Amino acid sequence: MAEKSLESRASSIKQLASEVQNARENGSEDSEAFEKLIDALDDMRADLTAFLHDVFQHLPTNGKDTASASTHVKDLSKLVKIPADILLRIMRLLTANKIFLEIDKEVFCHTPLSAGMVDEMVSARLGSLFNGVFKASSSLSDAIDAGKRSAWEARFGMPMYEYFEKIPKSDRERMAKSMAISSIEEIEDLSVIFPWEKFNNIVDIGGSAGHLVVHLVKKFPHLQTVSQDLPEVTADQIRRIASLSPTEKALYDRVEFESHDNYTPQTRTDADAFMLRRCLHNNPDDDCIRMIKAVIPGLEHKPKARLLINEKLMPVWNSSDTRYKTKILRREDIAMMISVGGKERTLEEFAGLIRGADKKLEISEVYYGKNYFSVISVRLAR
Length: 382
Hints:
The chain is an alpha/beta fold and 382 residues long. It has 3 domains: 25-116, Arc Repressor Mutant, subunit A (Orthogonal Bundle); 120-181, no CATH class; 182-380, Rossmann fold. Helix content is 55%, strand content 14%. The chain contains 17 helices and 10 strands. It has helices spanning 2-26, 29-52, 55-58, 73-80, 84-96, 112-116, 120-137, 140-146, 151-156, 160-166, 169-193, 211-219, 231-242, 246-249, 285-299, 323-339, 347-357, and strands at 70-72, 101-104, 107-109, 201-205, 224-229, 255-259, 273-277, 306-312, 361-368, 373-380. Helix 1 crosses helix 2 (29-52), helix 4 packs across helix 5 and helix 15 (285-299) packs across helix 17 (347-357). The longest helix has 25 residues, at 2-26. The protein starts with a helix and ends with a strand. InterPro entries: COMT-like, COMT_C, SAM-dependent_MTases_sf, WH-like_DNA-bd_sf, WH_DNA-bd_sf. Residues 139-357 form the O-methyltransferase C-terminal domain. Keywords: Methyltransferase, S-adenosyl-L-methionine, Transferase. This is O-methyltransferase C-terminal domain-containing protein.
């Protein structure tokens, strides 16, 4: 039986190889896409190695001319601790992708693309990708076979959030910076697409450093806000604010930091709106239902109170959106699968989670922003 299975698999591989070869000879679009996929894996390995060995940082970026901002590969190898012959091969592949430029034999300098990767915020985002998600992604198949919640757990032996509690503070800060980058445009979009002028008291559940509520109180002077998160997160923010100048502290006059667990029944009774911003895509369905259910006690005290679910909406099958546009979100969906066992969802799937939490919860309106960004407004029927 095993021999037949192997023979069948070998036959399938030969057939696939034949099809790829035929497609290559015919110059088809499928062949080009296949080769780009394979090439991308090699390119990413070179990017990963260069980044984790600080190659980008060790090439000078402030020279007056190209020559003074360049480095011989032998000198660079001493700085990044990669043998010169290996580093040269990596650099030349990156150069082929316009990352770095070989201005003389074995002498390299930055290009605009590689210089951009030295930026602190960009570097933080790449660090989060290369140190975690990229490594975990190789264990996705193993996680599926073993019934693990995520590829991260299969690779590192623990869930992602537990992993980050145990790593050095500098690495945690890098992760926080990465998340801040991805949320800047989203927070601005959120402040535009939703009618905040109709509300007075806002609670941001899982609000972390309070980026959203601080942005909102700057734009809407009438708002009073609360940022809820775990005790250690809240304590960190209170200490951070205490060290600020009086002018900087003034930004937080209408921001309160409060300890709260997302799964604990909501104790706030004075809020007009409770925000779950990008909390649900980090979690599987059962945990999402628990989170939504925990907000209900807060909604019961005000007839017009709303739960605001801020997520990206996955397009439905056969959507008219371009393949490129949908591919970006589908990549994010797989990233959630790899890192935390979460997922990006369609509006119908969110409606299912809401009904699963309580039959009295119903969607009152949906507000749409850029790139599938949305706010689902949920009310408690009386």
